Amino acid sequence: MAIEIISTGRAIPPRRVTNNDLAGMIDTNDEWIRSHTGIGARHLADSGMACSDLAAEAGRQALVSAIERGAVAESTVEALALTVDVIVLGTTTQDFCGCPSTACIVQDKLGAKNAAALDISAACSGFIYGLETAAGLLGVNARRKRALVIGSELLSHFIDWNDRGVCVLFGDGAGAVLVEKTAAPSEGEGRRGLLRSILAADGSGADSLIIRRGGSRNPWQAGEVVDTPPHLEMNGRAVYNFAVKAVTGTIEALLSDQRSEDRRSEDQSSEDQRSEDAGISIDDVVRIVPHQANARIVQAAAKRLGIPEEKFYLNIEEYANTSAASIPIALDELNRSGQIRRGDLIMTVGFGSGLTFGGNLIVW
Ligand code: COA
Question: In what helix (H) or strand (E) does residue 178 lie, and over which residues does it extend?
């Protein structure tokens, strides 16, 4: 049994805001933003939009693509949507404050009436966590065959647009993959699909990247008047240092598969599998698709590991940091442009609020 990605999709709001546009609003400039982050522009949703609008569109694009590529027997989006068993949505900017989940709203928008639907709250690692979650949900039940894994964010509604240290970094968007459980092998010769994932967290860093208001810790009070709506607060330097370590550590762990959690739980058969899988060389990996938070984080990790920067796919210049959406947006771009092909070994790696981090190793 293999858990394979059979199609991809994305939804990007049309409104493109350049660094120079921001420089007309706050005290910043294109040179600072580019040199400190690699960001040149971001796409921002209009005020009437919500996270589920982008998520549903990205999911729909993945369904359309599966049909157009002949990857499924169904010939209409409506019919294909009915075959989806699970919708897993990674997001940190839900339509509502967790009730209901945004995945349920997406399920309704897509007409995916037979799908279980849940949100994953792992911030920018949401897609990485979501893919592993979907694989687990498909794996434990013979009747489940297909899952939509979506990363969608509408961060612009949770940004203090007067905080130049934060607002220049983020953008809106969504990406999605349609995942199918197939009869292909997941190990050995001809193996396909999701080979393994690293999921990790360091909750002691929860304060470094946080939206403080609106939850059960700091609920709104009747009659309260605030100067700024709930917004993302960030300790940029702390996150930067954590991120470089998270990226380097995850890449090493995915290559060696030597994570202690795996060692604790493995039985003889997984021991056998590990020795077969272990020792994947970075040269075997066609592309590393990192979370697009800051090009400098990726460059620092590449340097530490001695990996050529060109192996990392970067589109941050156009989209900025779209949190859980950044990896599936990048996968869709790579897939549609033919830069990744069937059989290629792909690695994702990411980190975010929580603090969370992790990665996936996938044969495309
Ligand atoms: N435009 C111009 N100047 C800015 C600015 C902006 N948008 N934002 C900050 N500055 C200024 C600061 O005020 C500071 O000025 P000062 O020295 O006069 O006080 C100066 O630039 C340097 O600030 P500093 O915070 O030290 O910059 P930095 O080199 O650490 O870079 C980040 C800041 C945010 C780019 C960097 O810390 C980072 O990328 N952190 C990780 C963030 C991240 O990835 N978050 C999401 C995780 S999923």
Answer: strand 172-182
CA dist list (Å): 260 to 131, 195, 264, 337, 355: 21, 17, 6, 37, 19
SS3 275: helix
Burial of 99 (0-12, 13-18, 19+ CB in 10 A): exposed
Using left for φ > 0, alpha for ψ between -120 and 50, and beta otherwise, residue 38 falls in left
Our answer to whether residue 291 is catalytic in this structure is yes
pLDDT tens, position by position, 288-310: 999 999 999 999 999 999 999 99
Does residue 199 have a pLDDT over 90? yes
Query: Can you give the pLDDT at residue 263?
Result: 43
Angle CA 320–324–325, to nearest 5: 60
Mutate to test the pocket of ligand 1, among 36, 121, 294 (most ligand atoms within 8 A of CB): 36
Nearest protein CA to atom 44 of ligand 1, as residue = 293
